[in-house]
Design brief:
globular, 17 helices, single chain, mainly alpha
Length: 482
């Protein structure tokens, strides 16, 4: 269970010559109204810049296919370039394979079924590891995570434009972010707008609706901002090691909390042969007697025996995971219970007086027969935001965020497309979604159904009529040549 950075290889002169030929092959022709890259962008709905990037990745993919004897598997984006290049049959077979690669490069469709799906998933992970060895970490725009690459629904397909209306999918995440920012700015502007001078009573509870609602909105914004500022200060933590050596359980706790750390232990036990998971019942059977466990799992030996529910096993692991949490606390990576309590106390100190003022004004208004609908709605929204802030206590310090970000950057390829020995680390970083298509897919589905351990989506229940390559029914590629 070790996560190692892929070592960069030293290029041979033959490899440099090969890549030079690949790089100089023209895919854009100024003398053509619609050249290869332009058609690629038009037919796939890509921008010209994105299409150029996909062509560049296709060049690298073909290089990898030539320098390794075992097959390599493309991403869907790279495969789309390959599909189109095959339609340029003279250029592909005579120029590309004949003069540039100097070997035939065949495109092998998948035969379908779970075994083929598993084979291509592993080939894809190996392809990304080889890519990293020659070119550095692959670009996520063109080389997505394995569970995204092999999801059940293909991303690209041919449709009949006379029968199907195609609409662009809205970017909801960006839209909501922009809408939220606009609402906050509008509220801040409304609060800051100067009002004409008017005579109002000294007692704030005697103010009329307009002035009081303006004051209350300002106090809500101020209270929430103070709570957030205090939260940031309290969770700042000390200085952590630049690149601490965290095991999968520690990394899972840092990235996803106690639940993910417990699931990392469970997956580790299953992988070691000390436990098994029943797909039908969701039960976990622990039989670790006589089983040699990896060093990082020895502290969890004997926590339970026999068949139990996941919830029971997670609860039994909690006391031992507290030892892991304390280790991370001492390293200034996660906040201590004392810091968490102080954050909650500070949040209540900032918001409770404001909420109490609004609640009191509601009762005063009701006693005087005045409408309080707007005030009640504002108070309700304020209460929901406060409860959310109290429940969503920070999992990491700033130092913890930096360390986690460093892991994701240094091991970006392994986190997205893990090799067999890297799966536990990938789960620690990404959650249940990464288990799709692996021997632990059933456990990943169980976690997503329970709403635990997942940090993303995407699964593929075999192939069953879809495509092992994730695109239009094609699989991986058949290595070097004839």
């Amino acid at each position: 269970m070790a996560l190692h950075e892929v070592e960069r290889v030293a290029w041979t002169s033959e490899q440099r010559d090969l890549f030079q030929r690949i790089e100089t092959h023209p895919f854009e022709r100024p003398d053509h109204i619609l050249d290869f890259t332009g058609r690629l962008a038009r037919d796939r709905g890509w921008s010209l810049d994105f299409a150029r990037g996909a062509v560049a990745e296709y060049r690298r993919f073909c290089f990898l296919a030539m320098v390794f004897e075992t097959p390599v598997t493309p991403s869907e984006e790279v495969d789309e370039v390959w599909h189109q290049h095959l339609t340029y049959s003279r250029d592909y077979w005579e120029a590309w394979c004949g003069s540039v690669l100097r070997q035939r490069l065949h495109h092998d469709p998948t035969e379908g079924g779970p075994s083929e799906q598993g084979r291509y998933r592993m080939q894809y992970a190996e392809t990304l590891a080889r890519y990293e060895a020659f070119f550095g970490p692959p670009d996520q725009r063109y080389w997505p995570a394995t569970h995204d690459r092999f999801r059940g629904r293909p991303r690209y397909r041919i449709v009949d434009g006379d029968r199907v209306l195609t609409l662009r999918r809205p970017a909801w995440r960006g839209w909501f972010a922009r809408a939220g920012s606009a609402i906050v700015l509008a509220a801040a502007g409304l609060c800051a707008t100067p009002r004409p001078a008017s005579a109002i009573p000294l007692g704030v509870l005697d103010w009329t609706a307009g002035p009081f609602l303006t004051l209350y909105a300002n106090l809500i914004v101020a209270g929430l901002m103070l709570a957030l500022i205090g939260r940031a200060v309290l969770v700042s933590g000390g200085r952590a090691p630049t690149a601490p050596n965290l095991d999968p359980v520690e990394l899972a706790l840092l990235a996803g909390g106690n639940g993910r750390a417990a699931d990392a232990v469970i997956i580790g036990l299953i992988d070691a042969g000390a436990a098994s998971f029943s797909t039908g019942s969701g039960d976990i059977t622990v039989e670790e007697q006589g089983v040699r466990l990896p060093r990082i799992l020895e502290p969890y030996r004997g926590v339970v025996a026999g068949t139990v529910k996941r919830k029971t096993l997670v609860a039994a692991l909690a006391p031992r995971l507290e030892v892991v949490r304390e280790t991370l606390v001492r390293s200034s990576l996660v906040p201590s219970q004392d810091v968490t309590s102080r954050i909650k106390g500070w949040t209540l100190l900032c918001v409770a007086p404001v909420f109490a003022l609004g609640l009191t004004k509601i009762f005063v208004g009701l006693s005087r027969g005045k409408p309080v609908g707007f005030l009640f709605a504002m108070s309700l929204v304020f209460l929901v935001l406060t409860v959310f802030a109290l429940v969503k206590a920070p999992k990491r310090t700033r130092a913890g965020d930096r360390v986690l970000s460093g892991f994701r950057q240094r091991h970006a390829r392994a986190a997205r497309a893990p090799l067999e020995g890297e799966l536990l680390f990938a789960f620690a970083l990404g959650g249940a979604a990464i288990l799709a298509g692996t021997p632990y897919e059933a456990y990943g589905r169980h976690l997503r159904a329970a709403g635990d351990g997942s940090s993303g989506c995407g699964s593929s229940g075999g192939d069953g009529g879809g495509s092992g390559c994730g695109g239009g029914g094609c699989g991986g590629c058949g290595g070097g040549g004839d």
